[in-house]
Design a protein that fits this description.
Elements (H helix, E strand, L loop, with lengths): L10 H4 L5 H30 L5 H14 L1 H11 L6 H19 L5 H20 L1 H6 L10
């Protein structure tokens, strides 16, 4: 780096304290990621130790859920660190959660409360993620607002 170039200031330091909405959005994404990871590990353990109808399918589902948990967990970490890239995976996670919540709501079982909870969390997280304060804190500029 030459003497004329200076490193860009860290956005977290330059923009002041992290907005609460951003922290809440990160917490909801982390909650979803943790729930996915716990569900995946639960299915995996039951698939390995229990007597599932199809052991291979249970193990595959458990591993898939555990790997899918990485998306919201990484997004939550990025949101906490105020990284602009993290909003995309967080929004995608919420959009993927809405059809799952809908299917849980259509069930005639104990899954209905889980569907309600998932829908509330997904909609709340979406509202927090597209909020103007959150967008500014992440340094995301809208169309036509480039430097």
């Amino acid at each position: 780096m030459s003497s004329q170039q200076t490193p860009a200031p860290d956005t977290a330091e330059a923009a002041g304290p992290r907005p609460r909405r951003l922290t809440y959005a990160a917490a909801l994404a982390a909650l979803e990621g943790t729930a996915l990871l716990a569900g995946g590990l639960w299915v995996l353990v039951l698939g390995l130790t229990g007597t599932p109808d199809d052991r291979q399918q249970a193990v595959t589902l458990g591993i898939t859920l555990a790997v899918l948990a990485l998306l919201p967990l990484l997004a939550a970490r990025g949101l906490l660190l105020r990284r602009g890239w993290s909003r995309g995976p967080a929004v995608i996670t919420q959009l993927m959660a809405l059809p799952v919540a809908y299917n849980l709501l259509r069930a005639d079982s104990m899954a209905i409360p889980a569907g309600i909870a998932l829908a509330v969390v997904a909609v709340a997280a979406l509202v927090l993620l597209v909020n103007g304060e959150t967008t500014r804190a992440l340094g995301i500029k809208g169309p036509g607002r480039g430097e």
